[in-house]
UniProtKB/TrEMBL annotation:
Transmembrane segments: none annotated. This is TNase-like domain-containing protein. Residues 67-189 form the TNase-like domain. It comes from the Bacteria. SMART domains: SNc. InterPro entries: SNase_OB-fold_sf, Staphylococal_nuclease_OB-fold. It comes from Methylorubrum aminovorans.
Amino acid sequence: MSLTATILLIYAACLAGTIASPARSNEDRAPEEPGSRRLLAALLVPALALLAGFQVAPARADEGALRTVSGPATVIDGSTIEIGGRRLRLHGIDAPDLDQICFDGHERGYPCGRVAAAALAARIGSDALACEPRAAADGSAGVVCRLGQDDLAAWMVASGYAVADRSVSADYTDQDRRAWGRRLGLWSGVFELPAERRRVLRASAGL
């Protein structure tokens, strides 16, 4: 039980005891009972303040929640865009970082991260996107962005410019398998999974 809940229970018990105390006869009752009134007020005011805090906190959390956004987009990388100054990550996929190098079918290195970002930018062009929030299995927040009726994340994975992020969702695993089977994009050569590459870089930086 949380500390706040415990305090509330203590206050409730004290209030109940004060209210339920047997009334004294008129002969035994003093003309004024300022001490009892002060005690009741002292218990009541903090309790009301705590209860008010319980009701206000969720409203503050909701104010920061991600809402549906739409408009022209700026591409940050192959899985991240920006709309109206808000940076949004495409749900369920992962693309190479801008500085990542991959190798094609002839073992030639190429900047796959920049290629993925350029492909996404070309697909969007100057058109407006409609993006809605989507909760992930790991608790992270992402968006599903559509260009007309087309899901951009699905297009990126199906074209081989990004991979399905199975740690977040299984939504795009079918597109991932088809791109692999057809040796499209990243799958035409050799590449390191973006998440694995980042893990290795973080481990190296910590040495």
